[in-house]
UniProtKB/TrEMBL annotation:
<keyword id="KW-0479">Metal-binding</keyword>
<keyword id="KW-1003">Cell membrane</keyword>
<dbReference type="InterPro" id="IPR014349">
    <property type="entry name" value="Rieske_Fe-S_prot"/>
</dbReference>
<dbReference type="InterPro" id="IPR017941">
    <property type="entry name" value="Rieske_2Fe-2S"/>
</dbReference>
<keyword id="KW-0001">2Fe-2S</keyword>
<comment type="function">
    <text>Iron-sulfur subunit of the cytochrome bc1 complex, an essential component of the respiratory electron transport chain required for ATP synthesis. The bc1 complex catalyzes the oxidation of menaquinol and the reduction of cytochrome c in the respiratory chain. The bc1 complex operates through a Q-cycle mechanism that couples electron transfer to generation of the proton gradient that drives ATP synthesis.</text>
</comment>
<keyword id="KW-0679">Respiratory chain</keyword>
<keyword id="KW-0472">Membrane</keyword>
<protein>
    <recommendedName>
        <fullName>Cytochrome bc1 complex Rieske iron-sulfur subunit</fullName>
    </recommendedName>
</protein>
<keyword id="KW-0411">Iron-sulfur</keyword>
<keyword id="KW-1015">Disulfide bond</keyword>
<dbReference type="InterPro" id="IPR036922">
    <property type="entry name" value="Rieske_2Fe-2S_sf"/>
</dbReference>
<keyword id="KW-1133">Transmembrane helix</keyword>
<comment type="similarity">
    <text>Belongs to the Rieske iron-sulfur protein family.</text>
</comment>
<keyword id="KW-0560">Oxidoreductase</keyword>
<keyword id="KW-0408">Iron</keyword>
<feature type="domain" description="Rieske">
    <location>
        <begin position="267"/>
        <end position="331"/>
    </location>
</feature>
Length: 356
């Protein structure tokens, strides 16, 4: 019975038992040996690292300047082309990337190559007495001294320049958000001019559309008559006035009170601007009669006056009242009865002003 070589777990030593190898006190392993970096032993390497950090901060400054120059110098007037807009967007993106990456990478490289990297272990004590407060102040001063910012004016000056310029792109963007929505989204080109109703025309060639051209299941991207002839403000006017025109079986439409004359023989027209964040609603599902916004998948039911059935949009697409003139062309009988585009503050008040 006393044989311990039977190979069982309890006798072979493979299973720890109570009281076996008890450690009386946890031993502090101490800090690992400190390994010096090349910049710690070679002054030339330290100077080279300092120049690298300064170059990275300089890149941040250059990126900010690129952003500001492209933002203010590139003219996005009323007649701007898509190529000009794309060029500005590219430069804005590159400028922001260089500005942020330069300052971030520079600080990381500064910390890894030049700042002291030795580990320190000390007991934690509550800071209560004046001596403790003075000790805390000295610790902060030691940290500032260890960064070397006082001894390295090149890094200090380039860092100050990068930090000073970094907020400017954000200030420029936030300061140019545009006028209040009630001045921009409440009215479009669809409003009759001098008593003359605007015809619905194809986008982009501007040819008028007859009711007979619109077959059941078809969809047209529509702009107001005369939009292409504008000399100024063409892009802004089009951005607000673009419309999707479709034809359904009239029996499939659910028409609310007051909208009986807004459609013609199953032909309906709705704003193309999503009521979530203003993306273009571009997909028409013919079988389900759903309109889909590709940005965030807001879905609108065309048979129920574009009621939202899925996604983050909070309200239906505004409907454009249409009719047919004496020549058989589709015309808008009025402007939209509500502001187009995404919801915004005080929208109910703006609708009241439109309807008044």
């Amino acid at each position: 019975m006393g044989n311990h070589s039977d190979g069982s777990p309890n006798h072979s030593g493979t299973v720890a038992t109570a009281g076996q190898n008890v450690v009386e006190k946890f031993q502090d392993p101490g800090l690992p040996p400190h390994r010096l970096r090349l910049a710690d032993t070679d002054p030339r390497a330290a100077k080279r690292a300092e120049r690298q950090v300064a170059i990275l901060f300089g890149i941040s400054v250059i990126g900010t300047v690129i952003f500001l120059v492209s933002y203010f110098a590139i003219d996005l007037g009323q007649d701007s082309t898509i190529a000009t807009i794309r060029t500005q967007n590219l430069l804005l993106g590159l400028g922001t990337a260089f500005a942020m990456l330069g300052i971030g990478t520079g600080i990381v490289h500064w910390a890894k190559a030049l700042m002291p990297d030795h580990e320190v272990s000390e007991e934690r004590h509550a800071i209560r007495t004046e001596e403790d407060r003075q000790a805390a102040v000295r610790i902060v001063e030691d940290i500032v001294e260890e960064t070397g910012i006082k001894r390295r004016p090149l890094i200090r000056n380039t860092l100050l320049g990068a930090v000073a310029l970094a907020p400017l792109p954000a200030l420029a963007v936030f300061g140019d958000l545009g006028p209040r929505p009630d001045n921009t989204l409440a009215h479009t080109m669809w409003a009759p001019q001098d008593g003359k109703l605007k015809r619905l025309t194809r986008d982009p060639d501007g040819t008028p559309i007859k009711a007979s051209d619109v077959t059941i299941g078809s969809a047209f991207h529509v702009i107001p008559e005369g939009l292409n002839e504008l000399q100024e403000g063409k892009l802004n006017a089009k951005a607000k006035a673009v419309v999707l025109l479709m034809r359904l079986n009239p029996d499939d439409l659910t028409i609310s009170k007051g909208r009986e004359t807004w459609s013609y023989n199953g032909i309906v027209a709705y704003s193309k601007i999503c009521t979530h964040v203003g993306c273009p609603v571009a997909l028409y599902e013919q079988q389900t009669h759903h309109l889909l916004c590709p940005c965030h998948q807001s879905t609108f039911d065309l048979t129920k006056e574009c009621k939202v059935i899925f996604g983050p949009a909070s309200r239906p697409l505004p409907q454009l009242p249409i009719a047919v003139d004496a020549e058989g062309y589709l015309v808008a009988t009025s402007d939209f009865k509500e502001p187009v585009g995404p919801s915004y503050w005080e929208r109910d008040e703006h609708e009241r002003l439109i309807n008044s």
